[in-house]
């Protein structure tokens, strides 16, 4: 029997919680809801969700701060809900470690599509042939089964999207990827967000794996085209 995924939904609006919980359960997920950050943290520790849907605006702990707190202890996929639609706000969500974002008001069915896509990407990132890929005399190691990344022997906490992005680039060292190609590899064809979100993930990834993010050795920019992997 296929394992049911557990989803934690955090929003201070009762109606949104009721609707999203109803749609999640109709799709076969176990759904838990919280209307504030304190309750969300307790549920997170108790139910260990496979995915978190998190509103930015919460009455106690700010949703952005809560995202950072979760990301420090877990690689669980996070979808942020935001009423803001500016590019700066969406980039900020991704900077915080979120894997995807949805702007309010949203279609519950569209949100369910995002949930399925994020969980699928998270699961697919482990489905590769090689177990461990090592670069530059072991300074960077990617374990494609356990989804662990080591930099000079120290573990690095990557989000699901960051890991998928690094894995895609590292397994295709000679290929230069456009942003559109990376979106297809990381998000799938159904992604509706701004293709510049890839730039934000690249920036975050560089800060985590590069000794000097401004002069990267691994994630290289090919001006006018996109990105490629520069490890050896």
UniProtKB/TrEMBL annotation:
SUPFAM superfamilies xref list: CheY-like
Portion annotated as DNA-binding = 130-231
Q: Which residues form the Response regulatory domain?
A: 6-119
Return the Pfam families for the record.
Response_reg (PF00072), Trans_reg_C (PF00486)
Instruction: Identify the residues that the record assigns to the OmpR/PhoB-type domain, covering every copy.
Output: 130-231
What molecular function does GO assign, one term? phosphorelay response regulator activity
Q: Name one GO biological process term.
A: regulation of DNA-templated transcription
What keywords appear on the UniProt entry? Answer: DNA-binding, Phosphoprotein, Transcription, Transcription regulation, Two-component regulatory system
Q: State what protein this is by name.
A: Stage 0 sporulation protein A homolog
């Amino acid at each position: 029997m296929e394992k049911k995924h557990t989803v934690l939904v955090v929003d201070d609006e009762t109606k949104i919680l009721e609707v999203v919980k109803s749609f999640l359960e109709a799709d076969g997920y176990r759904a838990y809801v919280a209307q504030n950050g304190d309750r969300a943290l307790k549920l997170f520790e108790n139910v260990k969700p496979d995915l978190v849907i998190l509103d930015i605006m919460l009455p106690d702990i700010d949703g952005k701060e809560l995202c950072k707190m979760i990301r420090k202890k877990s690689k669980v996929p996070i979808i942020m809900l935001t009423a803001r639609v500016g590019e700066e706000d969406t980039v900020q969500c991704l900077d915080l470690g979120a894997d995807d974002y949805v702007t309010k008001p949203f279609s519950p069915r569209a949100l369910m599509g995002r949930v399925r896509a994020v969980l699928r990407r998270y699961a697919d990132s482990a489905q590769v042939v090689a177990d461990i890929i090592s670069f530059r005399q072991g300074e960077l190691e990617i374990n494609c089964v356990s989804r662990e990344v080591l930099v000079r022997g120290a573990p690095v906490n990557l989000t699901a999207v960051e890991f998928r992005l690094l894995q895609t680039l590292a397994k295709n060292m000679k290929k230069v990827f456009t942003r559109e190609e990376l979106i297809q590899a990381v998000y799938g064809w159904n992604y509706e967000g701004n293709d510049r979100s890839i730039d934000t993930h690249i920036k975050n990834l560089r800060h985590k794996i590069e000794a000097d993010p401004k002069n990267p050795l691994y994630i290289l920019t090919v001006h006018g085209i996109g990105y490629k992997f520069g490890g050896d």
